[in-house]
Amino acid sequence: MDNLAQLLKESWTLVEEQRDKVAGYFYARMFLTDPALRTLFPVQMDGQRDRLLEAIVTSVQTMDDPENFDDYLRSLGRDHRKYHVRAEHYDTMGDALTEALRRTAGEQWTVEYDQAWRDAYQAIGERMQAGAAGDPNPPFWHAEVLSHERRGPDVAVLTCRPLQHPLPYRAGQYVSVEAPRYQPRLWRTYSIANAPREDNVLEFHVRAVGAGWVSSALVRRVRVGDLLRVAAPMGSMTLNPGSTRDVLCVAGGVGLAPIKALAEELAVHNRTRWMHVFVGATSRDDLYGLTELYQLAAGHPWLSIIPACSADPGFTGERGEIADVFARYGPWTTHDCYVSGSASLVRSALRTLAADDVPPENIRYDAFGEI
């Protein structure tokens, strides 16, 4: 396994800077081999290409960690049922992927690299199919929008409830969401912003950024009564039920969503652990979700909320980049640490935690974009 992982990482460096080219070859070969597969994908393919390559890179990076490799791919297989992927499609995708890598790398590609990717894809496909076959839940849930509240020009907080049986998940996980009325066959991932509840309601925090078709629809077009599709939960940024360590949470933007869910879950049973939540923003107008956290903290003295603004001279709270702010409150060496937000925020937070000698196994994070 170690030699295989090394070959995969070496070969990936040959094409890493040409991801768009890899994706273009991959989809062209796949649709040429099986034209019917095109109907499973959205008309706009740019976002789909990004997700494909993210899944490839993540799989390669976890190949030398068998437990995480297995868990990630089984959950990916469960998630991909929403695309109506069948067992026979995996062979077509594997052949297309290997050819795309070979053509992009050119003369630097070797027979050893080719075989390594074939072996890896076989392992990937087997685990994904096992995950899909072993999940008794439906590929996705139809969920009715119950409320929709704008929290600024680009942010909305909305709730929905699955119409079928409840969606099982843990606080801190995320799901793929489709708005079929507005953007059919286009899915995007969003963290669930509340801990599981008896009424089965799911809360999402969505920011419409750039040309994000699904996010824009969820913020600006979706109305109460609309139906969404919500796929199986994924992600491991969950509380360790066996831990007695205090908790540090760092959030930026709509990265607040899973942190809020973690705080709600801890509120159900916590008696001994302190939770410190640092929320970073550029200005006070971007601190859209503090009211609910303050309400939760009012009834739970172990929970503290520390907002910070990096570019708001009139803000009366903490000022500066969030990584610098929470570092001043440390050390955090003996805490369970959770970080959620943009890729740049997560990178800076992880550097701060590493400098504080926090053990890597005590850190979990979700980043919106590449780390």
TrEMBL record:
Its cofactor is FAD; heme b. Residues 138-240 form the FAD-binding FR-type domain. PROSITE patterns: FAD_FR, GLOBIN. Keywords: 2Fe-2S, Heme, Iron, Iron-sulfur, Metal-binding, NAD, NADP, Oxygen transport, Transport. Residues 1-133 form the Globin domain. The keyword Transferase does not apply. In the C-terminal section; belongs to the flavoprotein pyridine nucleotide cytochrome reductase family. Belongs to the globin family. PANTHER family: NADH OXIDOREDUCTASE HCR, PROTEIN RFBI. This is nitric oxide dioxygenase. It comes from Plantactinospora soyae.
